[in-house]
Design a protein that fits this description.
about 425 residues; alpha/beta; FAD/NAD(P)-binding domain; 2 domains; 21 strands; about 20% strand; globular; disordered C terminus
């Protein structure tokens, strides 16, 4: 077994890990980036064929690197995101080791940290003064335990494994979850002519464009993506909120589940349980649709107030009015009778840090931190949703988060930023 010492080990070679490496490279701090697969691989591996960003392209900013294409207000496709991210490492040549999985992290007896990894060169032990965990917060898909009791003839898969409608057997599809992935996958299947059943959670929604501009551009101007999580109503509880559903497909549009229902999509409330081919739902459909629309209109009202306060010349305001309402909340579904042959689980993910043997977590297994820096000296996290602001889980906020975390490292090791920035 090889033993290697470095000042900083960055675990994860996605956008957060690469952004951290850019800052450390600029500051002349010795480090290594350990990536279990390939850099930024999840964009290619866990998104479906017709995936697009839901944030405008101009949001795509990393330290020393920003989208500079011809459509800043458009939405890159999966393959375009992969290509854009693929060009980042070449701008500063990070000390990246791909196909190297960290299996354990623990504190060293004499201080610092010890990590074990496996890779192309076998097993390696790393010692470091600092560790930045940049593996994100979406590790294990949430699937209810009773899913195993459903008819074995059903095809079941998690949203990360969905690629295209043609991969699923003929027949209807039940999508469980109405967050960003669930609603977009449901629409993708609907556009491919499939009979789709969608079980809604409590996700809110937002208009794609309002009063002449993309809503996310308005919200950025209003400072929503720069506001610290502690300043939001409920404080840190905002980290548990589900993101608003909308799509960037075909140039961007609202995801109006009522409209899709009027076109034949079958909507249901929260999925409560099931066995064989029989499913039970809670009577939450009407309330879920109403709550999502209320959020939609509330955000529009916030934009109205901003426009008025700033004296901006913009098209007149409007509000969403329902184009379809359910006659009743359906409480049961026989999958066989409805012709449903597949289930796509899009409930969400939970973190899995079992390889981190350091006491920096709360009772739910999530790291406790302030702006990514934990109470354990030298241990930080990056790439988490709401790490510091709403923008933290997006390209828009990664640079600021990486700068903050690497600044604490720089202060600890006594390094100074180099005058010439890496480009």
């Amino acid at each position: 077994m090889t033993t290697v010492h470095t000042t900083v080990v960055v675990v994860g070679g996605g956008q957060a890990g690469l952004a951290t490496s850019w800052c450390l490279t600029r500051d002349g701090i010795d480090h290594v980036v350990l990536e279990a697969a390939t850099a930024a691989h999840e964009w290619a591996d866990t998104r479906w064929d017709n995936f697009t960003l839901v944030t405008p392209n101009w949001h795509c900013r990393l330290p020393g690197y920003a989208y500079d294409g011809p459509d800043p207000d458009g939405f890159m496709t999966r393959d375009e995101v992969v290509a854009w991210l693929g060009g980042y490492a070449a701008t500063f040549d990070p000390p990246l080791r791909e196909h190297t999985r960290v299996t354990t992290l623990r504190q060293g007896e004499a201080g610092g940290f010890v990590l074990e990894s496996t890779g192309p060169d076998g097993e390696t032990t790393w010692s470091a003064e600092h560790v930045v965990v940049a593996t994100g917060g979406y590790h294990v898909p949430i699937v209810p335990p009773w899913a195993a009791a459903l008819d074995p003839g059903l095809t079941q898969l998690e949203s990360a494994h969905y690629k295209r409608a043609a991969d699923l057997p003929d027949g209807g599809v039940l999508v469980v979850g109405s967050g960003q992935s669930g609603t977009q996958i449901a629409e993708d299947l609907h556009l491919e002519g499939r009979q789709v059943h969608l079980a809604l959670g409590d996700a809110p929604r937002v208009a794609r464009t309002y009063r002449g501009r993309d809503c996310m551009t308005w919200l950025a101007d209003m400072g929503l993506y720069d506001t610290a999580v502690a300043q939001y109503p409920g404080g840190l509880a905002a980290r548990e909120k589900t993101n608003h559903y909308v799509t960037g497909r075909d140039g961007g549009r609202d995801l109006d589940l009522r409209l899709l229902a009027s076109q034949g999509m079958r909507l249901h409330g929260l999925l409560a349980g099931g066995r064989g081919t029989r499913l039970e739902f809670r009577p939450t459909l009407t309330a879920a649709l109403d709550a999502a629309d209320a959020t939609y209109n509330s955000i529009c009202a916030d934009i109205d107030r901003w426009i008025e306060r700033e004296g901006i010349d913009a098209p007149p305001p409007s509000r969403y009015s329902p184009v379809w309402t359910p006659d009743a909340d359906p409480l049961e579904l026989d999958l066989a009778a409805a012709g449903v042959t597949s289930v796509v689980w899009a409930i969400g993910y939970r973190p899995d840090y079992r390889w981190v043997g350091v006491g920096a977590f709360d009772g739910s297994g999530r790291p406790t931190h302030h702006r990514g820096v934990t109470a354990v000296p030298g241990l930080s996290f990056l790439g988490l949703p709401w790490l510091h602001t709403w923008g933290s889980g997006r390209f828009l906020g990664i640079a600021r988060d990486a700068e903050h975390v690497t600044a604490t490292i720089r202060e600890s090791v006594g390094a100074r930023p180099q005058v010439r920035r890496v480009s």
